[in-house]
Specification:
single chain, 4-stranded mixed beta sheet, binds N,N,N-trimethyl-histidine, 15 strands, alpha/beta, about 350 residues
Length: about 350
């Protein structure tokens, strides 16, 4: 296999019937960094969380998922294990599309359940990392002999209106891992409108959300004792250095994450330890930091079930069933488009 050279690529080796991967970003100009300039020019400064995820950042995130303090991944996986079969039973045969499929670890629990139910298996992974997408697709093809895959190398925004026609009776769009929590409320609203528009009546939307809970539990999850989350946060600056020929010195920043109880969100910051000027040469841009100034690198909203259910209702995506763990720390919402 080679890297994507054309927009549409089939993986060879006799699997042509089973897999198609389309690269929606092939014709796109590279990231032009306009969002970085905007974020660093704003007051207070902020950066889009997507800049966490270069190759090293994605590895660090995988490590975060295994940390003792980081309960979300473990809890969501346990919910999938407990209720995968129930979800399959409720939806009946349907194809599974997934925004931000990554390594598709949790999705395999679903595929196992659909396979055990004797349903046809069709999976539509969507991810910005073509390497991740191709590697996980190959692994899945080897594991599930009846599986067909239609993958999109794409951002969520671009992919949602570009999903291919449904081949099975229905489709289930999965957005798990509480990634929705990265969006501000107004962005969340726009996102749900797009999802609703892309689904047909009867289709499903499976949403994984981190729920509101004790501050100490939340703050520990973003301030782990091994410093992996701090490294993940600093890596955003190192990523920008590489990408835009920058001179951020991570020794002059510290990691801070705290729970904002008014907004019900974790806010992750990089705090400037000195007064300093940082340049991003490729963007022809420089910005000044005061000593003690904060740069917001991520919000991670924590949800209230009645509130988000109302939001989903508003977008014609009412919750059919809610699956949660014993502590009610995390929830999987199975919604059905009306
Ligand atoms: C991938 C956005 C769900 O908010 O918990 C983990 C990212 N940031 N630790 C989250 C993250 C710091 C994660 N999401």
């Amino acid at each position: 296999m080679t890297s994507q050279s054309s927009e549409t690529q089939s993986i060879a080796a006799g699997d042509d019937q089973r897999i198609v991967i389309r690269n929606l970003m092939a014709g796109e100009p590279g990231e032009n960094g306009q969002d970085v300039v905007e974020g660093l020019s704003a007051q207070p400064k902020s950066l889009p969380p997507k800049y966490f995820y270069d190759q090293h950042g994605s590895q660090l995130f995988e490590e975060i998922c295994k940390l003792p303090e980081y309960y979300p991944t473990r809890t969501e996986t346990a919910i999938f294990e407990a209720y995968g079969a129930a979800i399959a039973h409720l939806t009946g045969p349907c194809e599974i599309a997934e925004l931000g499929s990554g390594s598709a670890t949790k999705t395999q629990i679903l595929l196992d359940a659909y396979q055990a139910a004797g349903y046809p298996l069709r999976y539509l992974p969507i991810d910005v990392s073509s390497t991740m997408l191709v590697e996980s697709a190959q692994e899945l093809l080897a594991k599930y002999p009846t599986l067909s895959i239609y993958g999109l190398v794409s951002t969520y925004e671009l992919a949602i209106p570009h999903l291919p026609p449904t081949q099975l009776t229905a489709r289930m769009l999965c957005f798990i891992g509480s990634t929705l929590g990265n969006l501000q409320p107004y962005e969340c609203d726009q996102f749900l409108a797009k999802v609703s528009h892309a689904l047909k009546p009867g289709d499903y939307f499976l949403l994984g959300l981190d729920l509101q809970k004790e501050t100490a539990v939340l703050e520990a999850a973003y301030n782990d004792s091994q410093g992996i989350t701090a490294a993940f946060n600093f890596n955003m600056l190192q990523h920008l250095n590489r990408r835009f020929d920058g001179d951020f010195d991570i020794a002059h920043f510290s990691h801070r994450a705290y729970y904002n109880q008014t907004e019900n969100q974790i806010e992750m910051h990089l705090k400037s330890l000195t007064a300093q000027t940082v340049r991003l040469k490729a963007l022809n841009f420089a910005t000044h930091f005061e000593q003690g100034e904060y740069l917001l690198s991520e919000i991670s909203r924590k949800f209230d079930l009645p509130e988000i259910s109302q939001e989903l209702d508003k977008h014609q995506l009412p919750v059919l069933r809610t699956f949660t763990d014993q502590n009610q720390w995390f929830a999987l919402l199975l919604c059905q488009r009306t």
